[in-house]
Amino acid sequence: MIPLSWLLALSATLFCIGVVGVLVRRNALIIFMSIELMLNAANLAFVAFARHLHSVDGQVIVFFVMTVAAAEVAVGLAIIVNMFRLRETVFVDEINLLKG
Amino acid sequence: MITVLFVAFAAILVVSSLLVILHRSPVASAIFLVLAFCSLAVIYLLLKAEFIGLVQIVVYAGAIMVLFLFVIMYLNLGRDVESGVTIALRRGLGWLLGAVLLAEGVLFLRHGAALGPEAPPPLDPGLGNTQQVGLLLYSRYLFPFEITSMLLLVAMIGAVVIARGRRARVEAGEAAAAGPAGPAAAGEEDA
Amino acid sequence: MNGEAPLLWLIPALPLAAVLVNLAIGHRLGRRAVGWLACGAVGLSFAFAVQAILRLAALPEAQRAAGFTDRVYTWMSVGDFSVAVSFLLDPLSSVMILVVTGVGFLIHVYSTGYMGHDPDYRRFFLYLNLFTFAMLTLVLADNFLFMFVGWEGVGLCSYLLIGFWYQRPSAAEAGKKAFIVNRIGDFGFLLGMFTLVGVTGTLQYLPMFAAAPKVFVAGGSLITAATLLLFLGATGKSAQLPLYTWLPDAMEGPTPVSALIHAATMVTAGVYMVARTHVLFQLAPVSLEVVAWIGAATALFAATIGLAQNDIKRVLAYSTVSQLGYMFMACGVGAFTAGIFHLMTHAFFKALLFLGAGSVIHALSDEQDLRRMGGLAAKLPWTHFTMLMATLAIAGIPPFAGFFSKDEILSGAFASGHRVIWVMGLAGAILTAFYMFRLYILTFRGAPRLTHEAAHHLHESPPSMIVPLFVLAVLSVIGGLVGPPLMEGGHPFARWLAPVFASGAHEGGHAAVHEVPVATEWMLIALSVVVAALGILAAFRSYLWSPETGTRLRERLAGLHRMLLNKYWVDELYDAIAVRPVHGLAQAFWRFWDTKVVDGVVNGVGYTLEGMSAILRLFQTGFVGTYALFFTLGVAALLLHFLRH
What we know:
The structure holds three protein chains of three kinds.
Chain A: H1 4-24, H2 28-52, H3 57-87
Chain B: H1 2-22, H2 26-46, H3 50-75, H4 85-111, H5 129-137, H6 142-164, H7 166-178, H8 183-189
Helix pairs in contact in B: 1-2, 2-3
Chain C: H1 10-25, H2 31-58, H3 61-64, E1 68-78, E2 81-89, H4 91-114, H5 121-140, H6 144-162, H7 169-200, H8 205-215, H9 221-237, H10 246-249, H11 255-264, H12 269-276, H13 278-282, H14 285-306, H15 312-332, H16 336-363, H17 381-395, H18 401-415, H19 419-444, H20 452-456, H21 463-478, H22 492-506, H23 518-545, H24 547-556, H25 558-565, H26 570-617, H27 624-644
Antiparallel strand pairs in C: 1-2
Helix pairs in contact in C: 1-2, 1-5, 2-4, 2-5, 4-5, 4-11, 4-16, 4-21, 5-6, 6-7, 7-9, 9-12, 9-14, 11-16, 14-15, 14-19, 15-16, 15-18, 15-19, 16-17, 16-18, 16-21, 16-22, 17-19, 17-21, 18-19, 18-23, 19-23, 23-24
């Protein structure tokens, strides 16, 4: 059996890599991919616990997460495409229409 | 044996995700993300979550990443150019924060605060993983299951509407207003 | 309490009901209906008043002092202090309500004719009824606070009615002036009330007057202060020195208003109040002296001003101020009955004089300047006849009403030892006779000096105006006969009022009027008549028989004439010492405090907020990346917090 702490450490690492990706990159698509990384990190944590607590509920949650992630990607990419049509760019630091 | 496999694929996972966020070309990032997902799928298999592992490959690697790649190609993006002081500043801050978060996470693990409360009783181990998931899905989690299908429907409509663009939406509105009387006339305007 | 109280509350309530009806549907009723409503309400009040007074008269004399009390409900009750909406009918208030409802009714009827063509007819009767309600409340209340409600109410109605034609700037100014000057007096009234309730613990008349001799030191500073403060209120409301300046300006209002409010009723409220609180005043001889002297001074002072005025209503206004002075003079020397007697007779002939003046003004198409009248006796026979009656009455010629009351006042002054005041009263009487007959001659006799326009439209007034004039003329002639002098045990009027004024005379303090030997009394009467006759003759000589005497006199005394014509420049004086400084203070406050401090603070809050938000706005860069950065920062901080605990 793989120790739970190793799995959780891996999940945390993956999550932090995703965070860094969101903060560091300018390209909207890369940022989106980083978000997917974060989601997967969460999924990993769920599965790890499911394994260690001998319950399948965790896996069912992961199922839902994946579904929602898929829906989110669809809509998010549609927005990015629209944004590209509007501003000819996918770089988030060139889009500041909501500046206060 | 399992541990060794786990370490190996965990390494691949970490390295490929780092490459995702570090590589200049979006296409390369996407490919590395696929790699990451696949290694994650293997880890799931190692954790006896076969159904999830396969769904991971089918949905994430097969559908979501394909969509990503499609959009990247469609937008015809080249390599990212990242330069400038502000960008460097932000990058530095970002890495810093990431490191901080990781440190905090490790500290949490050390305290042992990670383990949660008692879980509900496990199902009959004789059944396969898919069967187990299915049983739960259609009994205790039936309501979220149905809602999720609603969600997918809404997302689908939303994606179509958003992606169509403004001009197309206005013309569609005019066509609806004109009604059956002039779809031909509206169609002629539509270049 | 004397048996079943008659429904006293109805007497003020009927005009109030008319006000409410007028407010609600008045604009939909025609002029006739509004007129009937207003006059009918007051007429019914008069009927109920008469009925109540007959009940009062049926009581044995000993019980009349307490009269009838009609307690409607408790207004407020705090601890062991309580005030009720409650009415008292005793001989004093009976006289007052007869005057208010009786003369008021006649003036209401007159107004239907005088204001017949005015577009604001309905509003006029609304205010007039409201005034009647307030005045009746004032005289029927059985405690100070409720009386004060009426006091303020009549002040308000005075303001509304003076400024009735509010589009005229002079009318609006006059209304404001009346209200503000009254307010100064009211301030004194309030302070007096506070003192009284502080010492006696009650505001009701009968309990307070019973307790006063026991709790106040006779002649002490507290009671003197309280009564002087009350008198300050009276000087404001009754236009005595120094708060009289509003009354001449109040002539801006329609003439029926001048007749009702500024002759017969509202201005008499001060006299009523002093008479009502005579017990308190008699405990403070200093205050009574002050009252007498101010009354006498005002009587003489105003009479001198009246000599030189050219506006018919102004002459009458100063005459009113002067006659009110006589009433206060009477109260001040202890002859309270005489004061109330003169209040009543004055109501008759002064209202008649004003209404007659109104008739003249109406006939001459709104001409009010005496220098453009003359020779109207033949053209306006009824107006002329009734005004002549009134003028004889005010001049003090027997057997007209004014003679009896004025003579009684002068006798009272003489008898109580106030010789100087008596002389001042006599001097005032001569001047009164003179300027009133000057008015009469300039208006009705001599050669006409009318403008062409006025002469063209000259016409006698309609019956709605003539009939009240006639009734008032009858009253001016016979009204004094209830109070002939030299009667054994006092004349009927005095005997009626005796229960009210008997109480104060016995307890500590100022005694009642001394008795005079009969011979002295006859001499005093003769003196009054001679003095009046002299005044009349002088007037006739100066203005009718040899006008050049008058003109020559005026030229010789040009400086004096100018001073009188300009009313001793009192208004200008008040303007300089009171109005301008207050105005300047207000300006200073506005310029400094309001614009710099208050606006500064308010705007400052705005600027501060703007500044702060300008700083906060820096966070809203519009870049998603920045937001994500702060987001993550928050998460890290939160985790740190959880790590610690």
